[in-house]
Amino acid sequence: AQSVAQPEDQVNVAEGNPLTVKCTYSVSGNPYLFWYVQYPNRGLQFLLKYITGDNLVKGSYGFEAEFNKSQTSFHLKKPSALVSDSALYFCAAYMTTDSWGKLQFGAGTQVVVTP
Amino acid sequence: DGGITQSPKYLFRKEGQNVTLSCEQNLNHDAMYWYRQDPGQGLRLIYYSQIVNDFQKGDIAEGYSVSREKKESFPLTVTSAQKNPTAFYLCASSPTTGNGYTFGSGTRLTVV
After folding, report:
1. Which of A58, B71, B93, B101 lies at a C-alpha separation of 20 to 30 Å from A35?
2. Which helix (H) or strand (E) holds A103?
3. In this predicted structure, which of A28-32, A34-38, A49-53, B16-20 has the lowest mean pLDDT?
4. Residue A18: closest CA among A76, A78, A82
5. Is the pLDDT of residue A52 over 90?
6. Which of A44, A47, A48, A111 to mutate to test the interface with B (most CBs of B within 10 A)?
7. Is A51 helix (H, G, I), strand (E, B) or coil?
8. What pLDDT, on a 0 to 100 scale, did the predictor assign at position B24?
9. pLDDT-based confidence at A97, cuts 50/70/90?
10. What is the pLDDT along chain B (112 residues), one digit of tens a residue?
11. Rounded to whole angstroms, how far apart are CA atoms A74 and A30?
12. A40 or A79, which is more confident?
């Protein structure tokens, strides 16, 4: 079945340390991949996307993500985490065989950055 | 500024009452979506609509209803048939496949 997986419910990191949030996908064709962030009691905000081209995608707030086709992964990274990066992060993918174009979301990963 | 607006931000209702959540977008997006989010949980799709006057059930449509009479508007009614309506409701819109979603700021519904 086509799916998006975020294997970690929560990631804890100290401020200033590198942050990685993992995402793997399973699709039948070429995926369109996204990362969103959600702060408490707010909607999701777009961070970045991969559709084609360079495997390293740069996005908002200093985040980047690396598309790895062989490992079917799209991990989100930030070289130096801030306390303000504490939020819920969602990976998402279009299953391009889906004619309705619905995004498939992962379950989300809570990021906690401690001072 | 273009965007997607959900109202109200907070909503309280008594058990057994129907309630309608508003979602309006001025992005000229064709598709609109409703999601439910429970505390600490992910997103669950309730209904979606790709064009005016057409909509499809998502994964948890029971106890909910929608309409899409205008491209800009996609209201969600939470009916008395929904057993656990207390949740955070998110509306989203998108132009075409591959462009991702724009989300509203959400409505927190509490049923007492």
Report:
1. B71
2. strand A103-105
3. A28-32
4. A78
5. no
6. A44
7. coil
8. 98
9. low
10. 669 999 999 999 998 899 999 999 999 999 999 999 998 789 999 999 999 999 999 999 999 999 999 999 999 999 998 989 999 999 999 986 678 899 999 999 999 8
11. 13
12. A79
- Facing A43 at nearest CB: one of B45, B100, B105: B105
**How far lies B10's CA from each of A42, B7, B38, B52, B95, in Å?**
12, 8, 15, 27, 28
3-class SS at B92? strand
B12 forms beta bridges with: B110
Q: Beta partners for A35?
A: A48, A91
User: Can you read off the two tokens belonging to residue A109?
Assistant: 């990963």
Q: Is the dihedral of CA A15, A63, B44, B108 positive or negative?
A: positive
Nearest CA to A105 out of B31, B86, B92, B78 is that of B92
B103/A105 CB distance under 8 A: no
Tokens of B31: 């598709």
What does the alpha-carbon distance between residue B90 and residue B108 come to, in Å, rounded to a whole number?
A: 9
Residues in chain B closer than 8 A to A45 (CB atoms): 103
**Token digits of residue A107:** 């379950």
Report whether A25 contacts A5 (CB < 8 A): yes
